[in-house]
Design goal:
Blueprint (H helix, E strand, L loop, with lengths): L1 E2 L6 H10 L1 H6 L3 H6 L2 H12 L5 E2 L5 E10 L18 E14 L18 E4 L3 E9 L5 H46 L4 H4 L2 E2 L2 E3 L31 E2 L2 H20 L1 H4 L4 H15 E3 L7 E3 L3 E6 L2 E10 L3 H11 L8 E9 L12 H6 L4 E5 L6 E7 L7 E10 L3 H6 L1
Parallel strand pairs: 7-9, 13-14, 14-17
Antiparallel strand pairs: 1-5, 2-4, 3-4, 4-6, 5-6, 8-10, 11-12, 12-13, 15-16, 16-17
Helix pairs in contact: 1-5, 4-5, 7-9
Length: about 425
């Protein structure tokens, strides 16, 4: 068995990992770096830099026992008659091997923690398994085995706990360190600043419009950074996350207003509901050069558009089943911009009495789409947010927020 926690210094090893962050940021190809948001880069690198601390699975430990020979030459309580020899002197004994599974990274067992003690434990470190071996002469009381084990596991547990605290401090710093390295590289690439930063279409709330509190967005880890778009890094118009949240907040408010008086709105078709929503949006927001920031495109689209490219698209659809939702997603993904594209599907139920049966089908319908990438966090009831690929260019990423509003009214359904 080897001594554990005896080499160098754990803090030093963790600092070396942190020092590599700028070079890892620099290793991302420039075009891929420029089309990746800070959030995507952080989520891509964080799992590679994060250290998983050791956690001993004591409840899953096992033991094996076997006969062995034990060297007792160092036992001052024993007398030896062979005076011509210094040892070793072997006597029959018992060996106990205690295997303890663990999670975390093997190399942690090698390095000195802070704080550390003068007494070090001994064990064999395997892949996910820690073995404590105790060999004692046959005439040793059985209680000595437990005493020896308790001492070793107490020592190991103390060092594991010290290491965990250091590693958690390291992990807590990673995100800010990655952001610093990203900012430094973006600064060096200042000639591309107009590309790396999203070009925002000015969109201001009209005088008297109520303030809207932005929604905090949490994210999940993507498998890889997005590919650059086929069209290269020519800047295209887009809207900021803040404006996107403002728009979604207003659609949410308007849709819930519809739900309070469903009979008034359930008589309208998709285009009629779209026009009501469109008028209300333009009553809330205004463009930089004209009064109407939002305009219709085709039969059911709500668009912010410039230079024949859509920076935001909203699709109003009557709920007709999963196939209708798939069609709406297909339409959205054809003509959005390449960076942080933002869209919304607004579904209205006007024909189905059993609304509670529709909502659970929405997430699976979205995930079954061939361009689905991953779910994004969304805590609002009756709403879902996902990341999808563009149909025309797999390098494009589109954020799609789906609303479902219940406008079913018995009288309106009878009249229609």
């Amino acid at each position: 068995m080897d001594y554990l926690f005896r080499e160098n210094d754990l803090d030093h090893q963790l600092r070396k990992r942190q020092d590599r962050i700028p070079s890892q940021i620099g290793a991302i190809p420039e075009d891929q770096f420029l089309v990746s948001s800070d959030r995507e880069i952080v989520e891509h690198l964080h799992p590679q830099l994060r250290v998983e601390p050791v956690v001993l699975q004591l409840d899953a430990r096992t033991m094996n026992q076997a006969e062995t020979k034990v060297d007792v030459s160092g036992d001052s309580m024993r007398g030896f008659f062979d005076l011509d020899r210094d040892g070793p002197f072997y006597v029959p004994g018992t060996r106990v091997d205690i295997d303890i599974p663990y999670t975390g990274e093997d190399w942690i067992f090698r390095y000195r923690t802070n704080p550390f003690g003068l007494q070090l434990p001994r064990a064999e470190v395997g892949r996910g398994n820690l073995r404590i071996s105790i060999s004692l002469p046959h005439d040793t009381p059985q209680e000595k085995f437990k005493e020896t084990y308790d001492r070793e596991i107490r020592l190991i547990g103390g060092y594991v706990d010290n290491a965990r605290k250091q590693i958690e401090a390291h992990n807590d710093r990673l995100e800010s360190l990655i952001h610093e390295a990203i900012a430094a590289r973006r600064s060096r690439l200042s000639k591309h600043a107009g590309i790396a930063d999203l070009l925002d279409i000015p969109l201001a709330a009209k005088d008297g419009a109520p303030p809207i509190k932005p929604v905090r967005i949490e994210t999940r880890r993507p498998p890889a950074l997005p590919r650059p778009p086929k069209t290269g890094l020519a800047p295209e118009p887009g809207i900021t996350d803040e404006n996107y949240e403002h728009i979604l907040h207003f659609i949410r408010h308007q849709g819930r207003t519809f739900e309070t008086t469903p009979g008034t709105y359930a008589l309208h078709d998709e285009e009629g509901l779209r026009n009501i929503m469109l008028a209300q949006l333009n009553g809330q927001f205004q463009g930089a050069a004209k009064g109407e920031a939002f305009r219709g495109k085709g039969k059911t689209d709500i668009c912010i558009e410039t230079d024949n490219r859509a920076a935001f698209v909203g699709e109003c659809k009557l709920w007709t089943g999963p196939a209708g939702l798939t069609g709406a997603l297909d339409q959205l993904l054809r003509y959005l911009t390449w960076r942080d594209s933002k869209a919304s599907v607004i579904l209205f139920n006007t024909r189905n009495r059993n609304f509670s049966r529709i909502a659970p089908t929405i997430p699976d319908s979205i995930r079954c789409h061939n361009l689905f990438v991953r779910d994004l966090p969304c805590k609002e009831a009756g709403e879902w947010r996902v990341l999808m690929r563009s149909e025309e260019d797999e390098g494009r990423r589109v954020t799609v927020h789906v609303f479902l509003f219940d406008l079913y009214d018995e009288d309106a359904a009878t009249r229609s």
